[in-house]
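Blinded run. Sample ID left blank on purpose so nobody reads anything into the name before looking at the predicted structure. Input follows.
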Amino acid sequence: MGRCEPAPYGGTVAYVIEVSELTKRYGRRTAVDGLSFTVRPGVVTGFLGPNGAGKTTTLRVLLGLDAPTAGTATVGGVPFASHPRGLRHAGALLDAQQVHGGRTAHAHLAALARSNGLPARRVSDVLAEVGLEAAAQRRIGGFSLGMKQRLGVAAALLGDPPALLFDEPFNGMDPAGVLWLRGLFRRLADEGRTVFLSSHLMSEMQSTASELIVVGQGRLVAAEPLSAFAARAGRRCVVVGSPDATELAPRLTAAGAEVVPESAERLVVTGLPADRIGALALAHHIVLHELTTRTASLEEAFMALTADHVEYPAGAAR
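Blinded prediction complete.
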C-alpha cells in the first residue's frame, strides 16, 4: 500500500507513511502499544501527545533508528531501512542538536549529499531554501538553536524526498522563522508530499496542520481532521454583543438557548446558531454589534481528550 519509486533524487511521487499494530518496549517499559495509523500525501499531518506518549519513539522506528518489538512501520510501503540512499525517500529532523559542532554547515550537508548519491548543487539549493547561505562556512557549534533547526530542515530537504518527518521543528525559532516554517510545510504538502509533524506548540499546529494523529501512553487517541478533533472539546458557542443585551438575553433563553453574560453588553450563547440569534434580534428590533461563532481551540480539545493519558501530571496528589 502506498509503495512507489522515487524520482532521480527524490521528487513529488506520493508516499504513504503507515504504522500497523506497532509495539516498542525498552526492557519492562512499553513506549508504544499496538499503535496503528496512516499518514497520506498532500496534507500536513500533526502528531500530538503528552510527554512520554511515544511520539519520538514512533518516529525513530519509522526511520529505522529503533527496531519494533512487534508490528510494522513503513514509508512508501516498505521499512525505511530497505530504502537505498534513504534521503531520496524520506527526510527527517528529529534532534537539531545532534550534529558535529566542528563542521561547517556546508561540509555537513555535503557529506550527507555524497553518502546519498545526491548532486553537489543540492547543498547550495537547500542552504538558500532555509536562509543559511551567509552562514554556510561557519562552524555549526556556534549556531543558535534556531539556526540548527534550519540546518536540520535543510538536511531533510536535501534529497527532495516525497516524505518528510519533523519532531518539534518550531523549537528555538523566532517569529520570522515560525512563519517561514508554516509556509514551507504547507508548500511541501501542496506539492503532493507526505508531511508528518510533531510539536507541543498547539497554536502552531492549529495554524499549520489539517489532519491529526493523537497518541497517549503509546496508544491511539484520535486520527481525524484537526477541525473535527477541536470540535470534540465541547459545544460551539456564539458571542453576542448588543447595547440591549439585557433585553435580548431572556428572549434567547425562551428560544431554548443557554445564556451567560460576559459583560453588560456581551453574552455567550450556546444552543442556538448565529443565524437564528440574528433573526431573533431582528424580529425584536434589537441592535447587534457582534455575532461571532466561537469553537474550541486545539489546545482546549487536546487537554480535554488527553487528560487521562498524561504520564507525569503536575500537581498530582501525593
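Unblinding after everyone has recorded impressions. Confidence is low (pLDDT under 50) at residues 1-5, 7-11.
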